[in-house]
Amino acid sequence: EKGEYRHFMEKEIHEQPDSVQHTLSHYLDFVNGRVKPGEIDFAAVDRIQIVACGTAFYAGQIGRYAFERLAGLPCDVEIASEFRYRNPAVAPGTLAVAVSQSGETADTLASLSWCKANGLKTAALVNVHSSSMAREALVVWPTHAGPEIGVASTKAFTAQVAALLALAVTAGVQRGRIDPLIEGELVKALFEAPRLIAEAVQMDGALRGVAHELSKATDVLFLGRGAMFPLAMEGALKLKEISYIHAEGYAAGELKHGPIALVDELTPIVALAPLDEVFEKTASNLQEVAARGGPVIMIAPKAAPDPHGAGISRIDAPDCHPLIAPLVYAIPVQLLAYYTAVEKGTDVDQPRNLAKSVTVE
Ligand code: M6R
Question: Which of 240, 281, 344, 356 is catalytic?
């Protein structure tokens, strides 16, 4: 039931403080500020290979940044439809992780089976706990997003990201990379996520105005660095899916290697710019696009300095620990797509040509 909401997608966006909280509680002991040991001993894992499709693939890419940074654990992420047919060379000691809301996506399931058949340990990060992937994998890592009805994934995505961030902290602890003091700090940062997500959901006023501008565009660029890069691609996918506007997500530093040629006054550029160690780099990329007449919308915390340059408008995001920025910034990204689609009058919950679960290849 949609209750007070116009669409399931809107309802599911608003459910995210709860779904993230519920998911994190599975992996973290908030009372004692510790990770919960799970069935996988990350000290015995040499590499991680994530396989996934669509939004789950972007969640996997965000996870990769965390596994490498926090746990020093090499991590590859690949689109399942490519992985399954290219005879990948996977090292023994690799933990294969399928990320999927439904647990039924044909290519992801086939990739998981391939990994299992090739002797790898397997884990399934799934929202449907009785799904084919959950049955196929050695270990099930649940997300607790609850049933997701909207075809465009929202709360399943943030639940996947939350679980991967928590697991990366767990891996860091088990591999001796994170001492108890830092563990406490990171668990506390994750504990703050639901509250900050709830704050981000309140950003809707400013975002409606931007959505009005986006609804008139034929192309939109999303930019980010670090974990904001996969989130930029997720933002572009969300906009494409439900508003049918062409959009691309780019690593902000890659722009000058080609895509900046697309920039003109009709192409809005949405920049995801939390105050992290690469903020200054992103800001200077934004000056470059603004100087070429691109209307830039920078989503950043109030405390972030203003990049010099005309044409840069700002949307204030909640201030947050860099670890949880992908969770907090996912909200404005989803709301932008949602309001743009509403403005265009498209069928938000059932976009054309799309199915909720892609069980054939
Ligand atoms: O059920 P899955 O997570 O395996 O589905 C993967 C993709 O089909 C899915 O994320 C798709 O990209 C969504 N429509 C994105 O909003």
Answer: 356
